[in-house]
Structure formats: structure tokens, C-alpha cells
Design a protein that fits this description.
With 247 residues, the chain is an alpha/beta fold. Helices cover 19% and strands 29% of the residues. It has helices at residues 41-47, 98-101, 150-166, 184-195, 211-218, and strands at 2-7, 16-20, 29-38, 61-62, 66-74, 86-89, 92-93, 114-116, 120-121, 128-132, 136-139, 176-180, 199-204, 222-225, 239-242. The strands form four sheets. It has a five-stranded antiparallel beta sheet. A four-stranded parallel beta sheet has the order 14-13-12-15, covered by helices on one side. Helix 4 (184-195) links the parallel strand 12 and strand 13. The protein starts with a strand and ends in a 5-residue tail after the last strand. The protein binds zinc ion. Residues 94-95, 97, 99-100, 105, 108-110, 113 line the site of zinc ion.
Length: 247
Amino acid sequence: MMKAVAVTPGKQNSVQILDVPKPVPTNSQALLRVRRIGIDGTDLEINQGLYGEAPAGSNFLISGHECLATVESVGSNVAGLGKGDLVVPTVRRPDDCLNCKSGESDMCLTGNYKEHGIKGLHGFCSEFTVSDVNFLVKIQPSLAEVAVLLEPMSVAEKAVFQIFKIQERMIWKPKKALILGTGPLGLLSVILLRLRGFDVLAVARRPKNGLKAQIVEKVGADYINSVEQPVTSLGKFDFILEESGVA
Ligand SMILES: [Zn+2]
């Protein structure tokens, strides 16, 4: 047996620690020892009962989709992965639609995918967990301190990648970006865009001397408190990322 943090989907504030059987990996899965878990708005909303779906045959859903783990065991026919390797398991598992079959499950056409810790598959917030080996991202040991942020960073990366993909239709030389919201995703986007050389302005409701504003300024971006200065007064931008969670 092992300890796991779990919720009852659809029931408000149901989060609890359960004793559950240690998972047994199939031939295509790795057994993982969980090192770190990130908690985000999705986890909180699932615990509020707003969504979330337990795996078939289970009346609970193990929480957690942001995870850093080490490989505990892996099938003998799996190349490039061995016991002790640091990995981040990705969240979504595809269905059989055209995009999913083409390796683009983020663009699933049916919505019938599954997601660890969210929809139809247990999450990673337990002592051990399992993941299909084809959905593990191997992590260099030098990145161990930050790698649990890989999943939210992949969300920020997708937004920026898609913006540039769409704008391939024209000559476009963007310089100024506006980020609305400084949650984890907003802050990661600020960092990502600074790395691309953008002038970045981040806007949120917290005071200008707070920790989030300090992080924004530390990476060379500017911070505006929208309570003091209305967003409509900030001028023009080449693009705007809405990351306040209140579309
Ligand atoms: Zn699909």
C-alpha cells in the first residue's frame, strides 16, 4: 500500500489522504517514485467539485498533474530510460482522432482524451505512480530544482508558439507584449518572452512592491497594478496574453 492525495470528483472539498494499492505498471508503463508535485488552479477547481473524472471502476481520483519523478522500474525493452532517471510525465493521453494519432493531442478534435489527475486517469500525487513510457520527458539532473514547472511552462510555450505559427501568414516583427495576470502561467510567460527579447508589460491587481512584481522586474519586464492604472491607458501592443484566469 501507499499514501495518495485524492478527491471524489463532483464533491466539494473532498480532498483527503488515502491508503491505496501501489500501482503495478503494464509492459508499456514505467513505475515512478514521485519527488515533487505542483498544485495549480485546475487542482483547486477539481477539489471544488467543478469538474474531474475518476478512472473507470474507481470512486476516487488521485490528484496532481504537475510532477517530477524518478524512474523506479521500466520494461527491459525500453531504450534510453533506466532506474533513477529524473522524468516529468506529460498529462494528456490521446484518443484515436486524427490529431491525437498524429501526436498532437493538444489539438484533440473529440475531447475524448484522458488526463492524469483530471479526466479518467489517476494523477501523480502519491508515493508511486505509473505512466506510459512514451509520455515521459527525461530531465537533466541540473534542472532538478525547476523541472516540476515543466508542465505549466509547456502551456506558456504553446501559447507563444501558436501566436507565431498563426502570424506566419504575414511579415510580422512584434516587440511589445502585454501579459494579463501574474499567476504561475503569467510569470512563466513573462520569462519566456523576455528570453525572446520582447518588451514585456505584466498587469495584475497586486501591489507594485509585492513578490510577483519583483519577479517581473527582476527579469527585465515592467509591472503595472491595474487597480492604480487602467489597462486602457497602457498604449498599443503587438500581442496580449490573457492569463488572469478570468477571460
Ligand atoms: Zn483526439
